[in-house]
Request: fold
Amino acid sequence: MALRVEHDIFLVRQRGREVAAAVGLEHQDQVRLATALSEVARDLLRSVAGADVTFAVDLDARTGRQLLRVDLAPARPLPGGRYEPQSGAVARLVDMLGVTGQGGDTVVRMSRRLPAHAPALTPERLAELRAELADNAPGTALDELAAQNAQLISALDEVRSQRDELAVLNAELQETNHGVMALYNQLTEELEETNRGVVALYAELDEKSAQLRAASESKSRFLANVSHELRAPVTAIIGLARLLADSASDPLTAEQARQVGLIRSSATDLLTLVNELLDLAKAESGRLEPNWTEVDLRGVFGQLRGTLRALSNRPEVELVVEEPPAPATVRSDEVLLAQVLRNLLHNGLKFTERGEVRLRAERQDDHWSLSVSDTGVGVPPELHERIFEEFYQVPGTTRVGGTGLGLPYARRLVTLLGGTLELTSAPGRGSVFTVVLPSGGA
Ligand code: ADP
Reply:
């Protein structure tokens, strides 16, 4: 086809569309190719006074697929041998748009691959198509304009349907958003409600622990007052009993002497109980302030070795106080610490019939572990915590005497010293009471 005057642009466009349809391009692609062709034709008419247009079916070198190729051989050489479409969008309408060849053979070429499913075009079929197209007289510019209008309408139609689809999608998205917001609000509300519940619970807990503290304080005050009030009369009874039994007093009958002895030993037991109660009440009231110093464990152990030997009156039980490994210092209160260990050793001796009671110290990183082990009756696991309660004594062990206040007191003191007091034991296997103290103090 020759492209020489404005009117030819319509014809080239129309032909392009017809050829595209004939070789099997889809409707959209027909319009694309025709549009690209008319744009390029317009450019060439303006810049190089037209071109000769050739349509051909060719093979794509890369994919081996058939493609429709349009070559526009310019009427005059292209300026600089190059061609740049006026509208950048044109190149996107086809698969390839560019300049090929050199000098006088330079052509502007565009191509579009035929759909993969289209039947291959044999030379015979091409000949048929050529004949059909030759029969078709080129229409007028008006016809082409009408066709172009129809294409525009269908393109607009498509745009509108796409816009409608987008609107539907948007609406759905908005709905989803609403759903998510509703869920979020609900969750926030639930969270707030839970929070309010937790806050209320904490307030109640605070109140309960304040009540508990108050109750515990009044118990300690009561114990302290009662034991304090009892100490004077009990001491007086012991004194009076001693006076009665004194050889300088009037002689007593044997029965009277026995009864006075009973009064004295009962009063002494009572005094022990009163003193222990006072100690415990004091430790619990928080009025007991440890006297912190660098305590030498060797000294404490040596003292215990001496004082407790007198208590171990059974030859079948050996009291072993090991020598602590050097350097054996711990920041603590010497008197309170000795009191705790004495208490534990005393218990060990009380509840062991044969074997040994052993005190040993072990240093582990930043703390000391002081253990009192015995080969005595042991304590059933379910009572391991109970024996630290006030007045609790394991049934069957009461005959050896005691008040049931020693262990709770010992644990309070160890807590005051910044440590812990734990027990491992099983009936018949003996017991190990372990005091763990930070070596640097509380
Ligand atoms: P007390 O020794 O005055 O009864 P404690 O508070 O020291 O009071 O001890 C409470 C109870 O724990 C004891 O009555 C005894 O039943 C048990 N217990 C304490 N130490 C030992 C031990 N080393 N072996 C076995 N039982 C023990």
User: Anything to note?
Assistant: The helical segments are 6-23, 27-48, 123-135, 141-245, 254-285, 297-309, 334-350, 406-416. The chain has eight helices and twelve strands. The first strand starts at residue 2 and ends at 3. The chain has a mean pLDDT of 90.
